Amino acid sequence: MTERKLRRPGKCGWLLLFCAIAWMSGLSLAMASEYHGQVTFGGLPLPGSTVTVTATQGEKTAVAITDSQGFYSFADLADGKWTIAIEMTGFAPVKQEVTVAPNAAAGAFEMKLLTLEQMRAAAKPVKEEVAPAASASTATPSTQVSESRRATPASNDRSPGTPSGAPAESTNPAAAAGTSAAANTAAAAAAKKKGAAAKT
Prior knowledge:
- By secondary structure, the protein is an alpha+beta fold.
- It contains 4 helices and 8 strands.
- A hairpin with a 5-residue loop joins strand 3 and strand 4.
């Protein structure tokens, strides 16, 4: 058997290998880039804004929140066109198309405050459900008892031996006392009138 020796690559082979690696790494860098920017209001940073980027082709999205200086950053966005949307409570939303590329300029977005009318319209009033009025079936037992006493005819207050045509006697002592006091007052007033008429 003859033994074949492996040949080492020469200078030309090493150069080709190096060029291929450099070309592939450059290609991968060109395919994804960092995109960053700042959100401001009146020239001042606006922290807490929600920044959403959506690929114009496809459904890929990424979300970031601005930091205390209003900056946001997306590390690996594919190069090309993206739609950026910025939202913050009390401010008009911003939507714009941007181009992501290795040397693209940083995004700078100025937010505008909504008017009071616009804030009210955006707030969407909450409708409260009104509970239906309590029916007799859901009333408390004490309420049901008092209502049944009011609705009960006077004939039910009669004692068993009282004829149906006779007036019912009140079983409530306070009511009876009130009735007799009123009768006594009326009798006294009538007697006073008779005495005054007799003197004249």
